[in-house]
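Anyone up for a design puzzle?
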């Protein structure tokens, strides 16, 4: 996406006229003429540039915070601006039309996907406290109250400002305003070194432990100490002369404790300074997680019905999961049983043509093993089926696990699958006790060369043809996965677009034997949110209330036994970078990659995504979840941003791409989870569901 800013200089050193197109906090698109002044670096150590401006359509004074094209090419710089935008928009939602809105910068608009991404704020109030040598006793009380109110508001949003200093707190003589939102972190996330000494807490400076709201209490105490005394405090403990300053000693003594656990919370300090103030803030502002209605959540209601079905479902056949016991596996193409046949093996030559292989002619056992790993077998199980070949390792490790990506060609599922494979090759499965190896080294090397490397270099990939000219589905990639007990299972990935499924019935036939499905939801097609209108216009698509055609086509073809389909499934809200400032996506997308499967977190993410789709997209988009008994929901972004002329300006930065696959592996027992796969997906049956209840006529009901 190219920047929509066009500039011309009105005179040497004078303001520059420009036209800005940006999204407002409500999601509407606004285009406005603007006059921009000279710019400077807001912080010498940070990449953001800042300049004052005047929006000429309304005569509104503003401040633009932006990145140059060169700086925007660095993912770390873009992440800082994203963090600032995410925080500013979260505060806007929580504080709009309240008396506490003025505690923070008021965001006017943003364009974070432009070549030169930027934020627009209303003009700040006051000047940085760093310009005040010593603050009067009268001002100290109001300044302290406002700063603590700001910290408490952020705490209620699950946020901690890590960069509080005299340079980031403004004062206009009557009220304070907290800036530095690029340094905000989520409560409970690992600390990272940020800020300047002595204003950052000792734990934060060292990057130890988990982020705590009381980190900011230390920062506030240090800022107050400097404004009272005119000099900075000690970096690791309370100032030696603290008792000489009555307000500090009475209110903030414990705030200088070296350990966060020994400091008071922002609310406790605020009530110490102004009794009842914390309660007034809580009543007037909206917390990050709004309370849910008393009615049963649709997600929980659906899980309750699935648990009832699970209680009466037949136990899966363990023999079927491992194969038929005599070396036969189901061919993923013709769905007939196939066994290793040493007389039907082939290898490819330098012209990529199949040549017969006679393994008996290879005397060296190590070389024979290596050649066999790259060999394929011609499947003759169904003579009427088009010619097809199966990698030999696929036939020698029991029943393969087949995973199909489902969605329209525009959903980004090919990019998602590519980044899944890239995450695996980067060691993403190792924390879960899994190891990987390619089924066919030549096929894997080609996949990495043609898909992974170009995407990592920021190139937009062409659509992957999952269906050949002969009309049936083909492997995109296949791996050997070894679990924590040393058991090896082939995992094969298919990538099918909706047009493939509609075009040929042969592409659907292999679904009869599929083991797992990944349904990729395109938010631009599913969610009629106003801030996605610009993306829809750019992509040339419209909201489709009837859901993804590919979803229905697949679900209607799968074999059904009872009220639910028993294939394992994951629904992925893809291209989630389009929603990275939208609750609840914002709280999941910036989480670090998983290193363990937390059943409660998986269910919480599923519940959040279900609620978002249920509220905005309509029932058709949730049909996979409603039809499949074991189905989790996830947010993911394969690229981390939008393309610009066939490239991703800051490179393709994947987020949470492996989590859907981890969920599927857990459902198939490759990753062990407490309670087993069913509990992982549908939860444990609460006592009130398990105990029969008698109605008024004495009949038993559940």
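Challenge accepted. My sequence:
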């Amino acid at each position: 996406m190219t920047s929509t800013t066009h500039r011309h200089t009105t005179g040497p050193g004078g303001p520059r006229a420009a036209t800005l197109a940006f999204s407002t906090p409500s999601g509407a698109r606004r285009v406005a003429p603007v006059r921009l002044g000279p710019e400077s670096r807001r912080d010498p150590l940070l990449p953001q540039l800042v300049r004052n401006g005047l929006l000429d359509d309304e005569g509104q004074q503003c401040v633009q915070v932006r990145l140059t094209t060169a700086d925007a090419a660095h993912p770390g710089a873009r992440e800082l601006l994203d963090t600032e935008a995410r925080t500013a928009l979260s505060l806007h939602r929580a504080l709009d039309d309240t008396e506490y809105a003025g505690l923070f910068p008021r965001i006017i608009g943003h364009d974070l996907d432009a070549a030169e991404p930027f934020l627009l704020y209303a003009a700040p109030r006051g000047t940085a406290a760093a310009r005040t040598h010593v603050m009067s006793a009268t001002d100290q009380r109001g300044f302290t109250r406002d700063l603590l109110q700001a910290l408490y508001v952020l705490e209620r949003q699950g946020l901690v400002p890590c960069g509080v200093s005299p340079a980031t707190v403004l004062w206009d003589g009557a009220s304070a305003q907290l800036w530095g939102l690029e340094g905000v972190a989520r409560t409970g996330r690992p600390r990272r070194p940020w800020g300047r000494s002595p204003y950052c807490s000792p734990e934060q400076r060292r990057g130890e432990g988990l982020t705590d709201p009381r980190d900011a209490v230390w920062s506030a105490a240090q800022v107050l100490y400097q404004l009272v005394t005119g000099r900075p405090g000690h970096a690791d403990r309370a100032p030696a002369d603290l008792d000489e300053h009555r307000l500090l000693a009475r209110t903030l003594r414990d705030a200088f404790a070296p350990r966060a656990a020994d400091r008071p919370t922002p609310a406790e300090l605020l009530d110490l300074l102004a009794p009842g103030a914390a309660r007034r803030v809580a009543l007037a502002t909206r917390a990050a997680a709004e309370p849910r209605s008393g009615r049963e959540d649709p997600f929980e209601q659906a899980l309750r019905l699935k648990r009832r079905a699970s209680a009466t479902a037949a136990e899966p056949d363990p023999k079927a999961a491992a194969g038929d016991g005599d070396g036969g596996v189901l061919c993923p193409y013709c769905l007939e049983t196939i066994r290793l046949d040493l007389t039907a093996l082939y290898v490819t030559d330098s012209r990529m043509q199949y040549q017969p292989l006679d393994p008996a002619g290879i005397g060296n056992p190590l070389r024979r093993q290596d050649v066999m790993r790259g060999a394929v077998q011609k499947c003759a199980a169904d003579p009427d089926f088009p010619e097809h070949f199966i990698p030999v390792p696929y036939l020698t490790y029991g029943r393969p696990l087949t995973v199909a990506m489902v969605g329209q060609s525009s959903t980004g599922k090919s990019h998602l699958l590519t980044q899944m494979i890239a995450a695996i090759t980067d060691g993403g499965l190792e924390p879960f006790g899994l190891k990987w190896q390619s089924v066919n080294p030549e096929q894997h090397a080609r996949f990495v060369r043609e898909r992974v490397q170009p995407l990592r270099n920021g190139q937009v990939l062409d659509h992957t043809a999952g269906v050949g000219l002969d009309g049936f589905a083909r492997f995109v990639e296949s791996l050997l996965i070894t679990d924590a007990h040393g058991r090896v299972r082939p995992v094969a990935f298919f990538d099918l677009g909706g047009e493939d499924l509609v075009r040929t019935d042969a592409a659907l036939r292999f679904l009869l034997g599929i083991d797992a499905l990944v349904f990729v939801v395109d938010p631009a097609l599913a969610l009629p949110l106003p801030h996605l209108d610009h993306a829809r216009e750019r992509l040339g698509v419209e909201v489709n209330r009837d859901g993804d055609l590919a979803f229905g086509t697949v679900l209607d073809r799968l074999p059904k036994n009872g009220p639910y389909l028993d294939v394992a499934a994951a629904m992925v809200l893809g291209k989630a970078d389009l929603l990275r400032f939208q609750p609840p996506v914002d709280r999941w997308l910036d989480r670090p990659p998983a290193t363990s499967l937390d059943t409660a977190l998986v269910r919480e993410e599923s519940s959040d995504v279900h609620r978002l789709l249920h509220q905005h997209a309509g029932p058709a988009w949730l049909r996979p979840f409603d039809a499949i008994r074991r189905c989790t929901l996830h947010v993911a972004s394969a690229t981390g941003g939008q393309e610009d002329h066939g490239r991703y300006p800051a490179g393709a930065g994947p987020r949470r791409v492996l989590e859907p696959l981890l969920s599927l592996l857990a459902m198939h027992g490759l990753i062990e989870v407490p309670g087993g796969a069913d509990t992982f997906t549908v939860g444990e049956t609460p006592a009130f569901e398990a105990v029969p209840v008698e109605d008024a006529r004495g009949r038993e009901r559940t």
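A detail worth pointing out: The two ends are 56 Å apart (CA to CA).
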